[in-house]
Design brief:
single chain, binds adenosine-5'-diphosphate, Heat Shock Protein 90, alpha+beta, 37% helix, globular, binds magnesium ion, 25% strand, 6 helices
Amino acid sequence: MAEYWNIDPARQSLVDEFFAQKPEPEVSLDFNIPEKDFNNAGKGSAEVKNLLKRLGIDPEILRRIAVASYEAEINVAAHSVGGKMISNIYDDLIHIRFEDHGPGIADIEQAMIPGFSTADDLVREMGFGAGLGLPNIKKNSDMLHIDSERGKNTVLELIVFFS
Ligand SMILES: Nc1ncnc2c1ncn2[C@@H]1O[C@H](COP(=O)(O)OP(=O)(O)O)[C@@H](O)[C@H]1O
Ligand SMILES: [Mg+2]
């Protein structure tokens, strides 16, 4: 399977509306995510978190956004040859899109299983590779969409509503 969707049923119509309208964001933040750069990986999600905190987003919602975006950012650094993170903030939600340059995910359903990991020794030495990132992104987002296959780039996008 090359595409994966998980949408909170209560948010389905709002998510459909979002993709149909593709509105202009209030604020947009872009970060590069270089391969295996664990000194900087996580900075994009930290800055987004700080900005949302200043905007007064509810702490529990802020926590969900921080967890989901951090895990997705680390995955690009740990498992791809590098990519970027594009965060678009609207009145009512944040949409974050992670795009990398491959090598892709062979089986997304398998990658979603808690504990599944292909992390190499370097990534494990850095303390990653528990296989809980994707399940945590799913748990903490209102919408998760992954488009990938082996030999392709991976696009992961998520939405979290502010209320
Ligand atoms: N951007 C990506 N590019 C390639 N493979 C990925 C990417 N993100 C996740 N994966 C694959 O999905 C697996 C599970 O991811 P995750 O649940 O975050 O666990 P972990 O990062 O600890 O391995 C990874 O081990 C990897 O095989
Ligand atoms: Mg991970």
